[in-house]
Amino acid sequence: MDSKRYDSARIGDAVFKGTAWFFAASVIALMALIFAVLLKESWLSINAFGLGFIWTSTWDPVAMQFGALPSIYGTIVSSAIAIVIAVPISIGIAIFLTEMAPKRLKGPIGAAIELLASIPSIIYGMWGLFIFAPFLSEHVEPFLIDYLGFIPLFTGAPLGIGMLPAGFILAIMIIPFISSVSRDIFQMVPPMLKESGYGVGATKWEVIRKIVLPYTRSGVIGAVILGLGRALGETMAVTFLIGNAQEIHASLLEPATSISATLANEFTEAVEDLYLSSLVELGLILFVITFVVLGLAKLLISRFSYQGGKF
Amino acid sequence: MKKIMMLFAAVFLALSIGTARAELINGAGATFPYPLYSKWAYEYAKSTGLKLNYQSIGSGGGIKQVAAKTVDFGASDAPLGAKDLAKSGLMQFPMAIGGVVPVVNLPGVNPGQLKLTGDVLADIYLGKITKWNDQRIASLNPGIKLPDNKITVVHRSDGSGTTWIFTNYLDKVAADWKKGVGFGTAVNWPTGVGGKGNEGVATYVKRIKNTIGYVEYAYATQNKLIHTQLKNKAGNFVDPAIETFSAAAESADWKNTPGFAVVLTDQAGKNAWPIAGATFILVQKNATECAKAKEVLKFFDWAYRNGGQMATSLEYVPIPKAVYEIMEAAWTREIKCNSQPIWGK
Is the ipTM of this complex over 0.85? Predict the structure, then answer.
């Protein structure tokens, strides 16, 4: 007797399923299309330079000779510096907020971090150029050169702009992301686990080290990857601080460049087809790097979450 | 529901008609003349009611868009060669002149005090002269005590007409530069730090000691940077100023250069500033909309005749009368619609 209602429900189900499928598939389709367009537009450059594009370090718009190595190197190294600085600080902030902070501090500090995450990157860039770079060149870099100058990483002139300042600014920019996600993850640790820890006489440090961190490992790695993804693609702040030189130096104090900085700098005035195509190929490389990094992250998370379950 | 949709449609229609009428002339291109063109457009709209919309998307984009006829005119900081103009069916004419100025940050040195020549400047940018007290700089500046410090070279990181003019000058005066680097809106810099935009270079030079950079004249004066003197082709040391830029424009041979692709660097005039350059407008030679093409030319004619004061107040150099009369004669000759000239008597 209710067959009509049953039918309409079935139709509704089918429509809903179809729509959901459509939306899910459109994400994949969009990505495939972006990839296809990047590939098509960079075809000229791929044909001209082949795979050598990736490990050639000449970038000469006058002679129409292009190689991506300085940009790729700068992207990876500046992001790596950012991660090395940002991860311990972010996890420290998250642990403080979830395990130690008195209740009346949790709200304000949490809100401040979320506010930091919403500042546009151009503001970080301007601040970096006008305030942070002079500070680095007067106070931090002379110190590094004087005391650590025997390591090739810290030689050169204290300009306040270069690979290290770019890494610093990236670290500042991704700390809010990593710490706010980590905080949410730490809050998901079942109180019973922690209380049993305290019950058997564990100290706060031991509970954090042996219970909270192992339980949340996969989530925290996810948060770090989120930050890394942002650092790899960050444009404006890096362009202001990295020094924009198509060179590879051992020293972190020397000017460098990154893929996104090269794109931001040169896209507007690139007239010749091969020049434009090489810039698009840089974009394609960034796309692939980001894709590989995220893929590796997924792999890591799936392995760690399995171990995390056993801890 | 239907009513609301209708209302939306009506409002949308009204808006689109409104904007279509308001933005009669569309242009796109170089960022360097953007403040000037928007000032002119504003004043022109006040006196004639005609609106002009200029998007400063970069010379490359401007050239592409005018060639594809998606805008009514394009703008480029570097002149297009006669061959490229013919290929896209375009005509170009200069609209304003600017000067590029070497600026330094040397404690104790005042504006206009330091003297440089083209080949010394080239060798600094090639990384061959690395210290401020180098013999070649010192011999040009006997009265100045130069420090024993490393020179930090600052250049533009983004592709720009400023770089085009600056490197074109070095290319003309220094054989090593020509061989090793060449000229263009972006080049493969042998040394130095890249700042984004004129403001980026100005900031670096202002903040970092012992630097040398190059910026548009307006940025040098606004930021009170320390400019240098340069030796011009006639052998005189000159200061950058509206007069010396004009001198460069007047001594150029506009009439006999194909496509008016005149480059104002290293001009022969007695007082000519050696790193000057014009910024150009590009229009289609065979206009498809006659009335509109005429409106475009009318605007530029108005700017040539009435825009000089506004240009000077924004630190641009207006095109001298002798030069724009040559251009307007060329409009009559070259710009046609239905095979009929659209400008002139």
Answer: no
